[in-house]
């Protein structure tokens, strides 16, 4: 490596994204269900008790079985209400909730055809919720395969964390992708495979760790009352997140679900949304 390349590498390594705090507002909240009036009233009370301690939902609206019957009708109602946050569950207006294999047409359109954040909660009839689900948000986990520089994800997760609660900022580097990269490097004689494996792994994990430190400092600077916890590991993402959720009794997951380059759900968001049904999930 030339001296010029060495200097460039040093400068690039020193160029670290700095977290910028901006609290999102969730005043207008719309609860979309397929429940009859009596069940809707009961479910609505439960969801209000879940989010109102966070200061959300001063303008609270509900939709039930009598208000719409399919995804296009729901989209028209959303255009009318213009909520800051939509709350719903998988397989809305569908019997497919009986099998944990899909999100359903309504949730697919909500997450891909609109810009509304969606709080996906366990289906009221599915009996798959964790014992602590929908009781509090003392423990919130932001999950990402590329956490560095993702201010929007961190700000949303912080907004949903109760005062004095734990905000886990997590980054799981996919080990299968990493191993494929190292296999390619191993086929290039000019590169030392062992050195590359060690230094690349170190840098991949260092960047999110540095950003998490920036997030902790930024939230502390504006006196946001919560504890930032760090989780940066390498492994199989779905397996690691399931383990971490159980280990830390996470109350809420926060993740991105949109991808500018494709119409399908972003990255690992879809399998995570399918598999992790035990607790609420905020999809941005």
Q: How would you summarize this macromolecular structure in one to three sentences?
A:
With 284 residues, this protein is an alpha/beta fold.
End-to-end distance, in Å?
42 Å
User: What is the average of the pLDDT values?
Assistant: 90
What is the CATH architecture annotation?
3-Layer(aba) Sandwich
Task: Name the strands of the widest sheet in spatial order.
Answer: 2-1-3-4-9-8-5-6-7
Our count of helices gives 9
CATH class placement: Alpha Beta
Descriptive tags:
284 residues, Rossmann fold, alpha/beta, 9 strands, nine-stranded mixed sheet
Could you please describe the fold and organization of this structure?
The chain is built from 9 helices and 9 strands. The chain is an alpha/beta fold and 284 residues long. The chain has a single domain, classed as 3-Layer(aba) Sandwich (Rossmann fold), CATH 3.40.50.620. Strands 2-1-3-4-9-8-5-6-7 form a 9-stranded mixed beta sheet, sandwiched between helices. Strand 5, helix 5 and strand 6 form a beta-alpha-beta unit. The relative contact order is 0.15. Mean pLDDT is 90; it is low at 1-14.
Write the layout of secondary structure elements.
Elements: H1 3-14, E1 28-32, H2 37-51, E2 59-63, H3 71-81, E3 85-89, H4 105-113, E4 118-121, E5 139-144, H5 151-159, E6 165-174, H6 175-186, H7 193-221, E7 226-235, H8 237-248, E8 252-255, H9 269-275, E9 281-283
Parallel strand pairs: 1-2, 1-3, 3-4, 5-6, 5-8, 6-7, 8-9
Antiparallel strand pairs: 4-9
Helix pairs in contact: 3-4, 6-7
């Amino acid at each position: 490596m030339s001296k010029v390349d060495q200097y460039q590498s040093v400068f690039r390594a020193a160029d670290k994204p700095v977290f910028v705090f901006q609290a999102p507002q969730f005043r207008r909240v719309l609860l979309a269900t397929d429940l009859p009036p009596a069940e809707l009233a009961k479910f609505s009370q439960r969801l209000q008790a879940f989010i109102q301690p966070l200061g959300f939902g001063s303008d609270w609206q509900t939709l039930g079985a009598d208000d719409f019957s399919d995804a296009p009708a729901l989209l028209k109602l959303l255009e009318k209400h213009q909520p800051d946050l939509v709350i719903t569950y998988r397989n809305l207006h569908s019997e497919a909730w009986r099998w944990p294999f899909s999100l359903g047409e309504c949730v697919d359109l909500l997450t891909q055809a609109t810009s509304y954040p969606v709080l996906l909660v366990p289906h009221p009839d599915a009996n798959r919720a964790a014992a602590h689900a929908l009781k509090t948000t003392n423990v919130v986990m932001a999950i990402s395969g590329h956490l560095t520089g993702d201010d929007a994800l961190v700000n949303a997760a912080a907004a949903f964390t109760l005062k004095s609660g734990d905000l886990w900022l997590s980054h799981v580097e996919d080990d299968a992708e990493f191993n494929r990269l190292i296999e390619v490097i191993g086929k290039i004689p000019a590169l030392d495979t062992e050195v590359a494996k060690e230094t690349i792994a170190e840098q991949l994990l260092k960047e999110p760790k540095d950003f998490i430190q920036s997030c902790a400092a930024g939230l502390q600077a504006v006196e946001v009352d919560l504890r930032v916890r760090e989780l940066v590991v390498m492994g199989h993402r779905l397996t690691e997140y399931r383990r971490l959720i159980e280990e830390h009794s996470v109350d809420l997951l926060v993740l991105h679900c949109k991808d500018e380059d494709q119409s399908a759900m972003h990255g690992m968001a879809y399998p995570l949304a399918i598999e992790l049904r035990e607790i609420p999930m905020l999809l941005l």
